[in-house]
Fold this protein.
Amino acid sequence: DDADSEGPSKNESAADHISLKKQESGASIPAAAGTMATLGDGEERKSKSAPNSGNGAWQRLKKLNSVNKRCITVTFLSIQNRKSQEQQQLKFSTGQDQERGMEGPQTQSEGEEGTKFEKPPPLPLSQLLTIIVTTSPIRSHPSTEMLEKTFDTFPYAGKEFAYECRKVIVCDGCRVRDEEEDGFNNSNGFNSRRISCDSATASNSNQSFNNNNIDKNDNDRNNNDKNNSNGINSGSNHSESKPTITRKHANIKQALRSGITTVDQAKNYIEFKTALRKLCEDATRAPYPQVKSPFRNAEVVELEERHGYGFALRHALLHCINTPYVCVIQHDRTFMRPAPVAEVVDAMRNDPTEKIKYVGMSMKSNLMYYDIFGGKYGKKAIDELRSMILRPESLCIGGGVYGPNGSSSRHMTADSKKVRQNLESLVETYRGSMQHITYKEWLQSVGRSTTAGDSGGRCGNVHQNCHQLSLTPTLFWYDNTHIVQTSHYRDFVFDPKHKMVARGGFVEDKLSPAMIRNVERFGLREGHGRFGCYLLDDHSGMFFTGHLDGGGYLTADEKEKIQKSIKG
C-alpha cells in the first residue's frame, strides 16, 4: 500500500481522513475553504486554509483511486413519512378512487406530541374487500362439487362477505401432454407441450369474461420480467419448450399439481369452467335476497397458460382488483366456523401504525404458532414476540361468539366420533399451550376476568361476553385463507426487484425464507415489520379454516362407486 492508504488518526474520523501533501513550490496557493478542485480521473482536491509552517502552504488532498484502495458503496433509500404515503396512494381528495371503490386515506390531525390518528369513516365491506379464489385442474373435474362446498362455507365469514362482496375466480392454465407415449409409465417418454387447455378442444366458444387483451398484456409483462421478476428462464418459445419432467410427476396427483394434464383431463377442466361460469351467471341474475347464493357477484377469469398459484394471484391483483383489501382463498380451503372477517378489515383500517398488512386465518397446523416459534428460536426471541402481539380494539367482539366457550367453536362439525374426539383433544392441548397461557397472563395484567366471556373490557363494549381476539406475529407467509392490503401485494410482494415469488410456485415458498433473512439481518421487530404478517386467534382452541385436499378429492358419486365395488 502507498502512503495515501494510511488510516486516520485517533482524533480524526474516517470520513474526514485525507493525506497531507506539501506543495513543492514555496509559494502558498490561495483557495477558499471548503471548495472542490478536480485533479483528474478518480481524484478530488478539497482546499482548506491551514497555518503556514514557513516552508510553504499545506493543502489537504483526497484521492479516490479504485485501483489502489478498497471502496464501500452505500446506497441510501428515501424514506417518506406515513402521512405523505397515504396521500399519494389513496388520494381521497379526488373522486377517481371513489368511482373505483377505493378507500380514502385516514383522517389525521396534528396533535401536541405529533400526528394524531382519527378513525376513517365506516364503509360497507363490499367497497373494501374483494375475494380472490384460485383454482386449477384436479381429478374431480368436470364436477363443481368441491368448489361449491368451499363457497357454501362463505356465510361463516358474514352475509355481506358471502353475498355482497365481489368474487374473482381465477382459473389457471395447464400444460397438455402428448399421448403418443405414456408419460406416467415411462418417465423418459413424457413429452409435454406448454399450451392452453382450450387448445385441447375447439368446443369452448363461450366466455363470460373477455380476457384476451388482459392475457396478452400479462404475457408481455411476464416475458419482460423473466430475468427481472422471478429469475426463471423458461425458454424463448413457450410452444416449443419442453418442461423438465422428474419423478414427482410419476402419479396423477403430482402431475396435476404441476399443471400437467392429459387431453381428457384438459377437456374435463374446460367443461368445469363452462359449468362454473353458468353457476356464477345464474346466481347473479337470481333475485336477491329471495335467492341467496355465495356465487352471487362472482366472475370467472381464465388464464391461457399455466401461471402457478403465485402468478395467477398476481394476474388477478394487477388486472381485476380495485378495492384496498383482498381475501385470498384456494379452491379447497373452507371456513370451519364463524370468522370475524369484517372486524379484521376494520382493525387493519384503524391501525395507526400500519403494522397489520396480512392477517391469516388459523388452521390446525399453526393454531399454536406461539409455541412453534418458541421451540425454534428460544426464550429471548419469544419474549420479544410476546411484546409484538396486537390486540386491536376492533377485535374486541361481544355477543359471546368467540372465546373459550364462544358459540363460534360449537359450529365445528365432525363427520365421525373419532373426529370429534380429536377436536376435543386439540382444545385440551391448546389450553395447556404457552399461546393460551400468555393470553391469560395478559388478561390478569389488565384486570380482566379469565372466565368465559371476559365481560367488559378495554374496548368499552357494553355488551356482555365481550372477548378480545389476538393477532400473533408470524414469520411465515401462509397461503391459507388470508386478508391482505392490496397495495402490499402489488407494490411489495410482487415487486419485480425483490424476486420473492417464482412463476409456477406458491407465494409462501420464497417469501417466507425472505422474511427469515430480513429478521436475521434487521432484528425481529424491524425485520417482521416490513412484512406485517399476523395470525388470528380467538383463544377457543379451534381453528378457523380446513382443507378438502383438492388433489385427492372424490365426489359423492365417486365415493358411492368405490363403496359398491368394495361390497361387490
Observations:
- The chain has a mean pLDDT of 75.
- Residues 171 and 273 are 8 Å apart (CA to CA).
- The first helix runs from residue 82 to 90.
